[in-house]
Specification:
Blueprint lengths: L3 E6 L4 E8 L3 E9 L1 H4 L7 H23 L8 E7 L3 H18 L3 E5 H7 L11 E6 L4 E6 L5 E6 L5 H11 L6 H9 L24 H16 L6 H26 L4 E5 L6 H13 L3 E3 L3 H4 L4 H12 L22
Parallel strand pairs: 1-4, 4-5, 6-9, 9-10
Antiparallel strand pairs: 1-2, 2-3, 6-7, 7-8
């Protein structure tokens, strides 16, 4: 008999629900994006995100159950993103999941958002362990060592801006709109990545930590100087040079970790994992040493509930259940599953 997990995700600006069987088979994966509501502000407005989650969470859950053809009574457990994320947005999902689990008499599972991104790979790949995983998104840039699906060690994270956050901020100053990642990815394809020598912070071999605020500032200063001198601004070249600076350091650190920990499997996860240059560059770099890259399809790189249900399945099998006092945790210091 299959263990059916309902996953609920409301950590930022996607309201999502999904039903996954046995931590692998997606029976439904419903995502309602708020991008259009936030675009005019150039980024996510937390209060707007929370209010939209309140409006959408129940219809999205109903759609996920209907598409999967299951009732609440058939579920093994209900999994929800408890953090990290926007606290108001998280609270909508957490309180909804607690209510449903209590009413249906089902176990409640609290999932770490970063772990969920890693788990997106397990929905589409048979991953061999141990492995190294790079999680790069709008709010997080972390490098992990994975002993198995349940155990991970944080090797390094960002000291300031995450990679995705840098993409959004640079896209804003280039007037490319929101979200910035896809816009820069598209524009960079027609630019010269060697046109500007932007800095690669923390590119040495003594740390697995990241920093992108200096790179972001360098781009802003370059644009300001060009404007002051009334010189032509080639946005495609700037986008390509910026993207190359981000991708190069992500690939370099990930490959160094793969060599140090002697792993054959490398995972990529998070919204920035949809970036075409990052996927191509990392795959080519790993291929030289005979290592294999695992990466979800683009629709599973961005926030979704199938990854939450997948991560929740592992916790369910370990009987790591949350209590009715579960609260949203906007900042989680470790990358292990939130229990």
């Amino acid at each position: 008999m299959q263990d059916l997990i309902l996953g609920i995700e409301t950590s930022c600006d996607e309201t999502a629900a999904a039903v996954v069987a046995d931590g692998r088979i997606m029976l439904s994966n419903i995502i309602s994006s708020q991008v259009d509501f936030h675009r005019k502000f150039g980024g996510v407005v937390p209060e707007i995100a929370s209010r939209k989650h309140l409006e959408l969470v129940n219809p999205v859950i109903d759609s996920a159950l209907a598409e999967a053809g299951v009732k609440l009574s058939a579920l093994a457990a209900i999994a929800v993103t408890a953090g990290p994320g926007l606290v108001g947005a998280l609270l909508v999902g957490v309180n909804t999941a607690k209510t449903l689990a209590y009413a249906a008499g089902k176990p409640l599972v609290a999932v770490n958002h970063i772990t969920a991104h890693v788990s997106a790979n397990y929905l589409v790949h048979e991953v061999t362990f141990p492995a190294v995983c790079l999680v790069a998104s709008g709010g997080h840039t972390s490098l992990l060592y994975l002993r198995n699906r349940q155990e991970s060690k944080l090797l390094g994270t960002t000291r300031d801006d995450a990679a995705g956050e840098a993409f959004d901020k640079v896209a804003r100053v280039l007037e490319l709109g929101y979200p910035g990642g896809p816009a820069i990815d598209k524009l960079a394809a027609s630019g010269d990545a060697s046109a500007f020598a932007f800095p690669k912070a923390f590119s040495g071999r003594d740390t697995y930590e990241f920093s992108f605020s200096g790179l972001k500032s360098a781009v802003i200063n370059t644009l300001h100087n060009l404007s002051q001198r009334k010189e032509e601004i080639n946005k495609a070249d700037i986008a390509a040079s910026f993207q190359a600076a981000v991708v190069n350091v992500l690939v370099e650190k990930t490959c160094l970790a793969a060599v140090e920990f002697d792993v054959q499997s490398v995972l990529l996860a998070g919204g920035v994992a949809a970036n075409r240059m990052l996927r191509k560059s990392l795959q080519e770099a790993l291929y030289v040493d005979g290592r294999k890259l695992f990466c979800p399809p683009p629709e599973l790189c961005t926030d979704n509930a199938a990854m939450v249900a997948c991560a929740g399945f592992d916790l369910y099998r370990l009987k790591h259940f949350a209590g009715w006092d579960l609260n949203a945790t906007p900042v989680i210091d470790n990358i292990l599953q939130a229990e």
